[in-house]
Amino acid sequence: MSVTDTVGCMLCPRECGADRINDTGYCLVGRDPVVSRAALHMWEEPCISGENGSGAVFFAGCNMGCVFCQNYDISRGRIGKAITADRLTQIYHELEDKGANNINLVTADIFLPVIRQTIIQAKAEGVRIPFVLNTSSYIGVDALKSMEGLIDIYLADMKYIRDEDAVRYSRAKGYVEVAGAAIDEMVRQQPECILDDRGVMLRGVMVRHMLMPGMLIQAKLITRYLYKRYGDRIYISLMNQYTPNGHLKDYPEIDRRVGDREYRSLVRYAQDMGVVNAYIQTEDTADAAYIPDFDLTGVESGDQIQGLYLSGIKT
Question: How confident is the model at residue 166, as a pLDDT?
Answer without folding.
Answer: 98
